[in-house]
C-alpha cells in the first residue's frame, strides 16, 4: 500500500475534505505540482483549475478550485480555496442553464457596476465549464 498523508480542503464556508490520501495534483499559479507523502515544505498560490485527488485504493476525486493557496509538508497538504466545487456535484445541464441566466444578467444590466459583477459571474461559470470539460 502506498504511503498516505492528510489532505484538507477548506473554503470560506466550511471544511470540505479532511482525509488521508495517496496524492494530490495542485493547480499552482506557477504550474501544476503533485504532492505525495513526505513532500518538502512548500507554500503556493492557486490558479483556477482542478485538484486531482487519489484516495487510498486508487479512487480518484476531482475538485474545481479558484483563488487561495496550498501549504504542503511531509505529513499534510492544506488547500485554502475561495471557491471549491466537487466535479461529482456539478450537473452539465444545470451549469449550462446558470451560464444562460448569467448571459441574460449581463445583457440586462443597466449600470456599469451591475454589468461588471454579472460579467465576473459569467466568466467564473464559463471557466468552471471549460476546466471540467462539460
Low-confidence stretches: none
Structural class: alpha+beta
CATH homologous superfamily title of the largest domain: F0F1 ATP synthase delta/epsilon subunit, N-terminal
Gyration radius, in Å: 17 Å
Q: Write down the CATH topology of the largest domain.
A: ATP Synthase, domain 1
Q: What's the short story on this structure?
A:
This protein is of the alpha+beta class and 134 residues long. The protein is built from two helices and eight strands.
Main features:
2 domains; about 45% strand; 8 strands; about 130 residues; ATP Synthase, domain 1; alpha+beta
Describe how the helices and strands are arranged.
Layout: E1 5-10, E2 15-21, E3 23-28, E4 31-36, E5 42-45, E6 49-54, E7 60-72, E8 76-86, H1 92-108, H2 112-132
Parallel strand pairs: 1-8
Antiparallel strand pairs: 1-2, 3-4, 3-6, 5-7, 6-7, 7-8
Helix pairs in contact: 1-2
